[in-house]
Amino acid sequence: MENPLLLFPQLNISASKEKSYYKVMKSTIKEEPHKTSKPGAKQKRNRLSLLLQKSEFHEGDRLGRPGHLTKAASVSPQEAVKWGESFDKLLSEKAGLDAFTKFLKTEFSEENIEFWMACEDYKKSKTAHELLPKAKAIYETFIQKDAPKEVNLDFHTKEATSQSIKKPVLTTFDAAQNTVYRLMEQDSYPRFLRSDPYLNLVQGKNPARPALRRRSRSFTVNDFQGVRPDFAVW
Length: 234
Fold this sequence. Notes:
Elements: H1 4-7, H2 9-37, H3 41-64, H4 77-83, H5 87-92, H6 94-106, H7 111-122, H8 128-143, H9 155-164, H10 174-194, H11 196-202
Helix pairs in contact: 7-8, 7-10
C-alpha cells in the first residue's frame, strides 16, 4: 500500500503546523510565570518616577496654598492687626510683606510687589557701577513693552523712565515705583484685608485646608542674580 502521506501531502503540512503551534504555546506557558513574578527594571523605574511626581505635586501644592500665607512665620493676631493700620506698615514687616506677596500670587499680580522690591533694592546700591546692570535688569523685566513681568504704568511715567535708563541714577525708578505702590495700596491692599487668610490670622484661627489643586507655573525673576545679592523675598 502506498504511503497515505504521499497521497495526501496536506496532512503532513497540517501536522507540522500543529507541532509548531504546540511547541510555541508550551514555551510561552513556561516563560509567562517568570515574567510576571519579577517586574523588569523599566517597570520599576516607571513606578519610582510616578512616586517622585506625586511627592513633588503635593509639596508644590502646600507651598502655594493661599490659606497658608504665614504659617512658617507664626504671626500672632496682634501682629496681623497692625498690618491693617496702613499699607506702609504691612510692607515694613517681613512677615507682612511675605503674606501680601503670597496673596498677590493667588490673584496673579505678584509682578507689582516684585517690582516694588526690586526698586527698593536698587536704591540701596552703594556704587555707581552697580546702577547700570541693575537698572537694565529691572527695565527689561518689568517696564519695557512685552516684558515678562510688565507692570501697569501710564505712558508719561514709562517714557520718562525709559529715558532715564540711559544714564541711571538712584531716583530713576521713583516715579514708576510710586505709581505701582499707589495701585497696590488702593486696589490689592483692601482686598488683602478682606481675605479669609488674613482674617483667620487676626482671629487666631488655623487656616482651613483647601481642596487639592495643581500648582500653576509662576515666573521667577532670576535676571538679578549677581547684581542684587540681598533681595529679601526672591
